[in-house]
Write a structure and sequence with these properties.
- There is one protein chain.
- This protein has about 190 residues and is an alpha+beta fold.
- Helix content is about 55%, strand content about 20%.
- The chain has helices spanning about 5-65, 85-90, 95-100, 110-125, 170-190; strands spanning about 70-75, 80-85, 130-135, 145-155, 160-170.
- It has a five-stranded antiparallel β-sheet, with helices on both faces.
- Strand 3 and strand 4 form a beta hairpin.
- It starts with 6 loop residues before the first helix and ends with a helix.
Length: about 190
């Protein structure tokens, strides 16, 4: 006589075989389901990130285009990527004609100013912001002074991605400073 295993052991073996069958048959399906779910989550995250980038870009353009100062966005090499309407008016060109050209090639600048701006763009491309005042005589003979600020935009790796040029007409401020300095000189001489 061969001894029979206890019924609980037989039942346990049947349950184990059943679980193994479910795992083997259901496992790949479960893995596929989880992989699909992970892919869907990644796609959703990518869509949300793209939407956030688009919202950010729209906000940037709204601020950029409506700014009360002339703004020019450059590559680190100094090529114009975009400019707002004030900058186009300042540079005396239509916006599409300037995109892709060097900022220093604009007819507005004399040789010395081009050299100053070239050095400033080179410094900004290295990650250094700068600010300077440059003077222009407009067509009607009106002398204007502009503060030109260059600010580098860095990417996540710390590399300069773009350079923002801000041109602000400070002529009235310079004239007021000059008048104040003259008044102080006269006052110190006792003539005021």
């Amino acid at each position: 006589d061969v001894a029979q295993p206890p019924a609980s052991l037989v039942y346990g073996i049947h349950v184990a075989v059943f679980m193994l069958t479910v795992t083997l048959v259901g496992g790949p399906q479960l893995l596929l389901t989880e992989a699909l779910r992970a892919t869907q989550l990644q796609q959703r995250a990518a869509r949300e990130a793209q939407a956030a980038r688009e919202r950010s870009e729209l906000a940037f353009h709204a601020v950029f285009d409506q700014a009360s100062v002339a703004l020019v966005l450059l590559t680190p090499a100094g090529d114009i990527l975009q400019l707002n309407a004030r900058a186009a008016r300042f540079l005396g060109e239509l916006e599409p004609a300037l995109v892709g050209t060097q900022l220093t090639a604009a007819a507005h600048f004399n040789t010395e100013q081009r050299a100053q701006l070239s050095r400033a763009v080179e410094q900004a491309a290295l990650g250094h912001a700068s600010r300077r005042e440059l003077s222009w005589t407009q067509e009607g003979g009106d002398a204007r002074v502009y503060q030109v600020a260059l600010s580098p935009f860095l990417d996540a790796a710390g590399q300069v991605r773009q350079v923002l040029v801000e041109l602000v007409d400070v002529s009235d401020l310079v004239q007021t400073r000059s008048m104040l300095a003259q008044a102080r000189r006269l006052e110190s001489l006792g003539k005021l």
